[in-house]
Amino acid sequence: MSALTGILYAALIAYLGGWYTGYWSGNFSLLLFILTVVTLAYWLAERFHFAPARERAAARLSEADAQRRAALSAQGIARVDGDVEGARQEVLRQPWWLDWTAGLFPVILIVFLLRSFLFEPFKIPSGSMVPTLLVGDLILVNKFHYGVRLPVINKKIIANNDVQRGDVMVFRYPEDTSLDFIKRVVAIPGDEVAYINQRVYINGQAAPLQPQGDFYDEDSRAYRPHFLEKLGEKEHQILVDPRREPLFRADRRDGPFPYQDNCRYSPEGVRCTVPVGHYFVLGDNRDNSRDSRFWGFVPDENIVGKAFFVWMNFGSLKRIGSFN
Question: What is the pTM for the complete model shown?
Answer without folding.
Answer: 0.85
